Amino acid sequence: MARERKRIDTAAISPLTVNRLSIYLRSLRRLLEEGVLRISSERLARRFNLSSAQIRKDLAQFGEFGVRGVGYDVAELVERLSSLLGLDRTHRIAIVGMGNIGTAIARFPAFNSGSFLVVAGFDNDPERIGRRIGPVVVRSTGELVDAIRETGARIGVIAVPADAALWVFARLAEAGVRAVLNFAPIALSTTAECRVKNVDLRVHLEELAFFLERPEGGVGV
Amino acid sequence: MARERKRIDTAAISPLTVNRLSIYLRSLRRLLEEGVLRISSERLARRFNLSSAQIRKDLAQFGEFGVRGVGYDVAELVERLSSLLGLDRTHRIAIVGMGNIGTAIARFPAFNSGSFLVVAGFDNDPERIGRRIGPVVVRSTGELVDAIRETGARIGVIAVPADAALWVFARLAEAGVRAVLNFAPIALSTTAECRVKNVDLRVHLEELAFFLERPEGGVGV
């Protein structure tokens, strides 16, 4: 059955939707590995703890409709979502700050597979510069702008202390990085040139601690 | 000036509010270190990239009102928020999965300071069991339930592959853990016994990749 590829007004897609699409893609890839050829939204929802109504709604937004009683074609959906999410091309990642978090990210399989490739790591600690960590040899943060332009990295990971984060962010943007995953304990704002996702692990921990003594409520954070 | 401590209906506090309170606390602690005694909501907002109106609203909810023209007493606010967030007591953390992420978490200063203490680490890889990583000696995941009961850990960190996550979550809940930070690439749901915060790094990366080719919009994720 031929499907029309609906033209997408990407400015109208919310980050939450993109987040869900990414989760669907991962779940579908899993099914593909298991040899599953077709899946209904209900089965997908049950298997991966999702909402079947939301799945149908999200996919319909991109012109993907299941066949009644049969479901969706898994391989086709994987291809379509990969393309939609920009994952049919390689995205190069540069990590600034090669401490605990930076090192973990450099070695993390999810950041070094499929469409992602860690191509550079930076630090200002002489003990770390020159060491091989995961796929990179750590370079001095002083060389950041030039090195990133050389490697063509478009995604940056910031894993430096709060004091250094703003400066690093400015250098990354200057070097052509267009999207940043920020682990520094300070909020950075998305700019016209560079999109930011802040991940604040300490805050998550404190949120959990808050609810530890208070068993009321069952709302997931 | 004596303030009435407003009684708090904690079931009415949203996770987003708790998240902001945690950020205010960190910002205020910083000011305390710098010797700042009083601060207005506007100055706090400007300094730490927050919303002054939201600050006033959030603090008022807990009976904290600034003095017009003068602002808030920093030390008092730190004490009040620490108490509110349950951070005036020590919270013990157990980490399951001592790979890249688990190791980074075990060594992460923010997880081993103030009110937090990593007291146990588990893995099923014989190469890792018995090794010292950060403050713990890695134990076998088979001993998880007993070991956690011994250590009194109430917060768990899950850093295992997706396949193992549900089983680990069930064992943690069984052992008395009441809050979990989940890094496994599968969503876990908060239950009546145990609150969950899911942190999916791969999904964050894919969200960023989606927006790389599409410069429209300036909404932070």
Structural account:
The structure is a homodimer of 221-residue chains. Chain A is an alpha/beta fold and 221 residues long. The longest helix of chain A has 19 residues. In chain A, helix 1 runs antiparallel to helix 4 and helix 2 crosses helix 3. A six-stranded parallel β-sheet of chain A has the order 7-4-3-8-9-10, with helices on both faces. Chain A has a two-stranded antiparallel sheet with strand order 1-2. Chain A has a two-stranded antiparallel ribbon with strand order 5-6.
Summarize this structure as a short list of keywords or feature phrases.
Arc Repressor Mutant, subunit A, disordered N terminus, Rossmann fold, 8 helices, homodimer, disordered C terminus, 2 domains, six-stranded parallel β-sheet, two-stranded antiparallel ribbon, 221 residues, alpha/beta, 10 strands
Largest interface: A-B, 73 and 72 residues
Average pLDDT of chain A, rounded to a whole number, is: 87
CATH superfamily of the largest domain in chain A: NAD(P)-binding Rossmann-like Domain
Overall number of domains of chain A:
2
| Coarse shape of chain A | globular
**Beta-strand share of residues of chain A:** 15-25%
- Structural class by SSE content of chain A: alpha/beta
Largest sheet of chain A: 6 strands, parallel
CATH fold name of the largest domain in chain A: Rossmann fold
Strand order of the largest sheet of chain A: 7-4-3-8-9-10
